[in-house]
User: Fold these one by one.
Assistant:
Number 1:
Amino acid sequence: MTDILLMVFAAIAILGAAATAIQKNPYDKLISLGMLFAGVIPFVVAGGYLDVAISLALIVPITTIILLQAVWRCRL
């Protein structure tokens, strides 16, 4: 069961990376980066690095908000 879940998360991470490379709209790129991070965090947890996973879970949303504000200002 764990192997199946890891394959699913690997597929999510690969799809997120591919979508980030393809997208032209900055907002869509941020959504794709969110998919990429959502696919990577379970691998960090599976490796036993729970402190790093907690840090990622706190840092990624904050940086996403900062990047959204930066993209919004550049479009004006």
Number 2:
Amino acid sequence: MPHTNTWEKKGLLRKFTGNIQPEEILSSNFALHEHPCFEKISYIINDFTEISGVLLNSSHTKIYASTDDIISETKGKFDIAIVVNQDSLIDLANSYRNEMKNRYFKCEIFKTVEDAQKWVE
């Protein structure tokens, strides 16, 4: 699962392409949490608009939410924008967002990166 990280002044734009594997997202999240810049940012925009395949289900989104919740105890307030344009991914994004309700990290879903950027500003 190729992805690129574009560090911005207050956040990160992470763009995923190709096929998405559940364990690759988890390992990329762990690497992100360990990155020295992670402490300084207040948001992440995860762009999934250019992926070609997905092998995820709602049990994976529960795992991602639980690991993010653990990280939130030291990170505090943080915004997570998920950008999806495929119906199957919208359902998965909603599953993750539902798991993140009433947590330190706030999550919203968007169809364009531009809308996500407006939300995090």
Number 3:
Amino acid sequence: MQEFSGQDRAINPFALGAAYLEYCVKQGWLAKTGEGGTAQYELTELGEKKLANVPFNFDLSKLTKTADKKKRHHRTR
């Protein structure tokens, strides 16, 4: 995983969740119906077993640090 220090990058807060959902679909843990905003996910029998005790240890501190920074406004000449 790349780490971007000292760079302002816009972060889509839904990207992490969307990527994990797609991973779970590929693993057969979730079944997906629909696309985009109307997509629905259903836990499969395999997913129920695999995801029962999954610890979600995401370090969100790096995301919040960039989100809390005030955006710089550049002057136009």
Number 4:
Amino acid sequence: MDDRGGKFEPSETDPEKLARLLEIELMAKRAAWQQASSRRSTARAIAFLFLFLVIAGAIVGYFYLLSNSPAPRAQQENTPSAAATP
């Protein structure tokens, strides 16, 4: 056993080696951040597409219900009724 308590400590403190190790670690973290950002943007795009489809479906359904009505109200109001004739 070593007297350092089982912790890894580099025997050399070469600044260039430490800088390279830090740069490699930061490159790996940047890649992970970019993947997470890509997943978030994909999820956001899917959410907007779903919202668009729901709104478009509601509009199509609304026009479908209006087109199947028996007669528009304006035509019903303009027709003479039996009570209005003398």
